[in-house]
Design brief:
With 935 residues, the chain is mostly helical. The protein has 36 helices and ten strands. 52% of the residues lie in helices and 6% in strands. Helix 10 links the parallel strand 3 and strand 4. The longest helix has 31 residues.
Length: 935
């Protein structure tokens, strides 16, 4: 820019020399000296060109006298500027400009005001680690990676170790992977030493240009290294680094290779923690899943009952009144298969249902109505309806295998289910671990064995002082140091745990008992191995699907492999699938806690021999499900016959309460009041913007005033020369007055400035009629002034900047900082709102007619929304309820006696028929006919 200004000044000087030379040439022509003058003119032009070229060479060689070195330095400067601009697009999202401009970060890199590449998202500052439930183990591990190296560097310095620099989050959708990353970003933004947090989602780094994606990754790690300590979070990393194969695109392979080198290559990564999140762990390249890159892998599984209760407490802790602990426990028990996002949606849906139940009027009105928010109270029915509307994320594609016994079927199968739990504790003792026990607690107890007093010292004698007895015994008899085994005092041990629920078809072993057992073991991962799991994916062979299920089960131990209908499954699959299954089952380590649960709709003696070899009766691995006994059947029908069949018909009580109340229109909500710090910050930003506007307007006014064409408008009109000017022009204006108004901060927008320019033009046109030639020239220059000013504003003023100035002006008018002729409309609006308040709260002041008109408006709106009042019905006498209890008891005894040899599915069908009879006669006060039909 400076070079261009210098060139223009030289050219302008050249033009002035030529003009002066031409004028002298005209003088010399009169004395016949034109030839001599032409030679002088040519020589002057040549001298000017030589001086201009010398000036350019000086500017070009200002940094170096050597041409080659100058080109190299210019290339390096251009490269550094390009890198700086690229780094400014890869900035952390949890730090502000003032945070980056202070401390050591300012010395490492000079940054702008943008804190992200395209401002991808705004972090919710309220999300902290205490806002996350059921993931304490993951939070502790993240603290070891990020917080502890900052707080306790002496520990890592003592052992000369580096903390883990990478971790991978994987699990079903909605289990809190991204939520933990947000909480980590907020936790890193606290305290004196802040940690820069970079976030990239999926394919943010991908580009259509060859090599651009790799460059973006290098820039990201370069920027993170400059702002260390820092964290890079890759959300949906499977889209960025998929498994490399020969069938894959070469671009993705290059990106994966670049990411591998950046995470653990020849260059030291420094204090950079890389976190990846994915729903598909198998889609990530295996080279990433090793220490040095992703040191740890955290499984975000579906929360168990205790974790669900904790999540419910977090989402409802600000409710008033608070939900009881007993209700939250029961609700958590019902929400099997719900992830954290589902539980949050459940609370939201329950609140909306309560709103719909209390105020149905608001759904039919387009205006805001006055509501009593304290009258909106949730009940258990709201949560029940919300659970009916929500489909858990884990069940959208595949239904969950486990569910609790329903309240209807529980009395019938509770005895059989308790016997299954008793056998389960013998076969699979891991089920005895309480819900509060965690795997990390077990590992801690196992590690405590290393502190045994009788253990040999692992240190050298000169470095560690030990008892002479131990050292002598160690020297005499060599014992292995690493002889630790799984202690039965700390963790249960099971040998190939298996259980088969066998029985007649329809005994409930597959439909009720096995799902209820899986519901009890919900904290273990369940892998279903049935016919749909083998044949539903057409891209895989059944053998591949079977092997995949066993790999997942071995990776997530302790786990459960569930095989319903094993007899039918064995007959349907091919010989290769059977051989694959037996091989995979045999390859499982003997003491590995992988529980094989199966059900059979046939007797154990009728199963194939291979299946009998898997489940042995002598090891109590087979449980026969018997038919319900008399006591079970009596409990099953007792509630239906004795209680529900004798209930009175439902009545509409207090019909007057069913009428919808007419809600008045709500007043416009007042704007949010800014705090003092926010006001000061906002005023500073506004003043900075208006300062830029004033500088621009001064430059425009100076350009107009220095133009000789507009010299006549630069000063006020002399009243002594034009005595009648003020009689014609009521509001005089000139460019000097415009400058004064700029200095007095009278212009908040360019529109106000152009209004005064238009006023100058209109005054000139009004005072100078289109008659005299001199007046015509003035009129022409006035119109030119107007067009020139408008053209400069339109060409050089940024529209976004102009819009910002307009918003500042409106905001100041609302705050009452600007009062003038142009604010009458805003003041009238304020007076109108005040008048409306008087109409509502002080009808005696305004008048009854106005209040009636306002109420009439409300009634008309109520009619248009089809909310008609329901008149109260006259109360009718209630007929007496006729119920013969003795006949109902006899009917119950008859049902229990006749259903002696019925299976569970047949009892359920009988229960359904009786329920239909009760429903058809629910409005009868005389239950005699119901008893006859049921009998």
């Amino acid at each position: 820019m400076l070079r261009q200004d210098g060139d223009l000044s030289c050219i302008n000087g050249d033009m002035e020399v030529r003009k002066s030379c031409r004028s002298r040439k005209n003088r010399f022509e009169s004395v016949n000296q034109s030839l001599l003058f032409d030679q002088l003119l040519s020589a002057s032009v040549m001298i000017l060109k030589i001086l201009l070229s010398l000036n350019r060479r000086k500017k070009h060689a200002i940094h170096s006298s050597d041409t080659t070195s100058s080109d190299e330095e210019r290339f390096e400067r251009r490269k550094s500027k390009s890198m700086a601009r690229a780094r400014n697009r890869c900035l952390p999202m949890n730090l502000r400009a003032e945070d980056l401009a202070s401390g050591i970060l300012r010395e490492r890199v000079k940054v702008g005001a943008s804190l992200a590449d395209v401002d991808p998202m705004n972090i919710d500052k309220s999300v902290r680690f205490d806002s996350i439930g059921g993931l304490s183990h993951h939070i502790h591990a993240l603290k070891e990676m990020v917080v502890f190296p900052l707080l306790y560097p002496e520990i890592f310095e003592k052992f000369k170790i580096q903390p883990p620099r990478g971790c991978l989050f994987y699990g079903p959708p909605g289990t809190g992977k991204t939520l933990v990353a947000r909480a980590l970003a907020n936790e890193c933004s606290q305290g004196d030493k802040k940690v820069a947090f970079f976030m990239r989602k999926g394919a943010d780094c991908l580009s259509k240009w060859v090599g651009e994606s790799e460059r973006q990754l290098r820039l990201l790690f370069d920027q993170a290294y400059l702002m260390r300590p820092s964290i890079i979070f890759f959300d949906e990393i499977d889209g960025l680094a998929p498994v490399r194969s020969s069938r894959q695109d070469q671009i993705h392979s290059s990106i994966v290779s670049t990411l591998l080198a950046l995470m653990d290559g020849l260059d030291n990564r420094g204090e950079i923690v890389v976190i990846g999140a994915t729903n598909r762990l198998d889609s990530i390249d295996p080279a990433l899943r090793r220490p040095g890159r992703f040191d740890r892998e955290f499984l975000f599984n579906l929360p168990d009952q205790k974790a669900r209760k904790h999540i419910l407490q977090i989402h409802t802790r600000d409710w008033n009144p608070k939900l009881s602990d007993a209700f939250l426990g029961e609700l958590a028990e019902k929400c099997v298969g719900y992830c954290g996002a589902d539980i949050k949606a459940l609370c939201t849906e329950a609140a909306l249902i309560a709103l719909r139940r209390r105020y149905p009027q608001i759904y039919a009105s387009s205006h805001k109505l006055q509501l009593d928010v304290s009258s909106i109270v949730l009940n258990a029915q709201d949560f029940y309806h919300a659970m009916q509307n929500i489909v858990p994320a884990s069940q959208r594609a595949v239904m969950s295998s486990g569910h609790a016994l329903s309240p209807i079927i529980r009395p019938l199968l509770e005895r059989s289910f308790n016997s299954i739990l008793t056998v389960l504790q013998k076969v699979f003792p891991h089920a005895e671990i309480s819900q509060s026990d965690k795997k990390e607690d077990i590992e801690t107890l196992i590690l405590d064995d290393s502190e045994d007093e009788n253990a040999l010292s692992i240190f050298e004698t000169s470095c560690h002082s030990g008892s002479p007895k131990k050292q002598s015994s160690a020297a005499a008899v060599h014992k292995p140091y690493l002889h630790f085994t799984m202690s039965p005092y700390h963790q249960p041990t099971s040998y190939r745990p298996r259980l088969l629920l066998s029985g007649e078809r329809g005994s409930g072993q597959t439909t009720h008992l096995a799902p209820a057992l899986l519901h009890t073991l919900e904290k273990f991962s369940v892998h279903r191995l049935d016919l749909p799991a083998l044949y539903s994916v057409s891209a895989k062979t059944p053998e591949e699907s079977c092997a995949q299920i066993f790999r997942e089960a071995r990776r997530t131990v302790p786990s459960i492999v569930y095989m319903p209908h094993i007899g039918d499954w064995w007959e349907a699959v091919s010989e290769t699938v059977r051989a694959t299954f037996l091989t995979l089952l045999q390859d499982i380590p003997s003491f590995s806690p992988i529980f094989l649960l199966s059900t059979s709709e046939t007797m154990y003696s009728e199963l194939p021999e291979e299946v009998k070899c898997i489940f042995r009766i002598q090891y109590e691995e087979v449980l026969y499900i018997q038919r319900p006994i008399e006591e079970d059947r009596r409990k099953f029908f007792q509630e239906l016959i004795l209680n529900q069949a004798s209930m009175a018909p439902p009545r509409r009580k207090h019909t007057g309460l069913c009428a919808m109340e007419v809600l008045p229109l709500a007043l416009p909500s007042p704007p949010r009041q800014l705090s003092e710090s926010e006001k000061i910050r906002m005023e500073d930003q506004e003043e900075n913007t208006l300062r830029e506007l004033r500088l621009f307007l001064r430059d425009v006014t100076k350009r107009l005033a220095t133009d000789k064409r507009f010299h006549i408008f630069s000063k006020p009109v002399d009243i002594e020369e034009v005595s009648d000017y003020l009689e014609v022009i009521k509001e005089p204006m000139d460019l000097s007055t415009v400058i004064t108004k700029i200095d007095k901060h009278n212009y908040l927008t360019a529109k106000d400035f152009l209004k005064d320019i238009d006023l100058i033009c209109s005054n000139a046109l009004e005072y100078n009629p289109d008659k005299d030639p001199g007046d015509k020239i003035i009129r022409h220059r006035a119109c030119t002034l107007k067009d020139t000013a408008h053209a400069i504003i339109a060409a050089e003023l940024d529209p976004e900047f102009n819009k910002l100035c307009e918003e500042i002006k409106e905001a100041r008018i609302k705050r009452g900082l600007v009062v003038g002729k142009r604010t009458c409309s805003c003041l009238s609006l304020i007076f109108l709102n005040f008048y409306l308040l008087q109409c509502i709260f002080f009808p005696s002041i305004v008048g009854a007619s106005k209040v009636k008109k306002y109420r009439k408006l409300i009634l008309e709106q109520t009619k248009t929304t089809s909310l008609e009042l329901v008149p109260e019905e006259p109360s009718e006498p209630v007929p007496p309820l006729v119920v013969d209890r003795e006949r109902l008891k006899k009917l119950l005894d008859l049902l229990v006696d006749k259903s002696n040899n019925l299976a569970v599915d047949q009892l359920e069908r009988l229960y359904s028929l009786l329920s239909q009879c009760i429903y058809r006669h629910r409005k009868d006060y005389d239950k005699s006919q119901l008893v006859e039909v049921s009998a």
